[in-house]
Design goal:
With about 300 residues, this protein is α/β, with parallel strands linked by helices. It is built from nine helices and eight strands.
Length: about 300
Amino acid sequence: MAPDHHDHDHGPARHHGNGHDHTHMDFSEMLPMLVQEAELFTPVYVEAAEWLREQRPEPGLIVDAGSGPGVISCLLAEKFPGARVVAVDGVEPLLAEARARAERLGVADRFSTVEAELSEGVGDVEYPADLLWASRSLHHVGDQRAALAGFVRSLAPGGTLALLEGGLPTRFLPRDTGIGRPGLESRIDAVHDEWFTRMRAELPGAVAETEDWPALLSAVGLRHTATRTFLLDLPAPLSDEARAFVGTVLTRRRDGLAEGLDAQDLATLDRLLDPDDKASVHHRPDVFVLTAMTVYVGVKPE
């Protein structure tokens, strides 16, 4: 992941032993964390949706490609009250959660789901999309260029594709936490980058691509019209919800990246995650959430 930090990629699955593939990700098992993260990051998605509304004021159909549990899909339904929204994902339990969420939020009458693998496009949507949103889903597809071309086929002439990829790695802690060696999160990032490279290489049909997203949008026939980065800044002291998210992410990092971290850093993480340790993220007053996410926009020629 050297060119781009996919910090919101949720990281590797936990080790289960017995030769379990360390790059495997069970998204249905990750459902609580996916909801937890999307809800916490809602201010960024609201800002992004409002920016997209300036560029595409009244889309008739919005497709959320790789929707997960539908937090952003439902937000798009709220921000574009005249649009139908279709959540597309390859994991049915996540789509079931999306439908239930749409029902709870009162948008189910113009909300539907399609089960489809993004490597094959976005499946059987009702009609061409005016706005297609893909948030950190493309990098789970082996051939990203082919998937983008599939997205473009599902766009109406003049339709807009908004691709959220890259940005900056999330930071939770000061460089020197007072325990272990300073710079822990930078070292975790380096190990995670190596994991991400392996994950990408082991995807079915994997094709190496330079992560120049505007160039990829142009390569599949879109006009790259805009790029914007959105900041999430949740300063200390954190809410209980944000603090719980920090614990969830660091636990996943500790479990999934243990083989690449040295003993001192693992011991530091164990202290940071120990609810009984006053230096842990459960208690320390200096924990924060700071990150940036980048959206690239392309428009299909009329």
